[in-house]
User: Fold RNA polymerase sigma factor from Phocaeicola sartorii.
Amino acid sequence: MNTYNEKEIIALLQDPARQKEAFECIVNEYSEQLYWQIRRMVLSHEDANDLLQNTFIKAWINLEYFRAEARMSTWLYRIALNECLTFLNKQRATSQLSIDDTDADMVNKLESDTYFNGDETQRLFQKALLTLPEKQRIVFNLKYFQEMKYEDMSEILGTSIGALKASYHHAVKKIETFLKECL
Assistant:
């Protein structure tokens, strides 16, 4: 298979003899975009790789529950976002830091990441993203970086389109304010 065709892949998933081949196509198709979505949430390359692997493991284990009512990407994004939220909540709980200390810890993680190669403006932008509440950060990341439609976000997050538009608007305003104060 050279090009990804969702209908063909879903049909192959139903065939036990070709299920692994179909799932490999899914992994190849979505790994990079899921990695970057996860990475924007957890910042660390190693954590993002682990969570990406967990996402695909959960998808494989729960393949029988995938109903082709939604697109494969929607289902995978939902799994990945749940993995991120669980990971971030566990991190907060085990570190027993206040929310401000957790944000500072995330900024330190960003600044010490050897894989981050952005300039100072990019670093400030990433710090601005860290000031957003989790939900706004997720919505902003999906809209800004993935250019995802609100309808698709609504399916993934189970939130109304109006609420998503409001979250995105508020996130943009907060980022603009942060950057104006820093520059």
User: Anything to note?
Assistant: Residues 1-101 form a domain with the Rna Polymerase Sigma Factor; Chain: A fold (CATH 1.10.1740.10). The CA atoms of residues 4 and 25 lie 7 Å apart. The longest helix spans residues 19-42. DSSP finds nine helices and no strands in the chain.
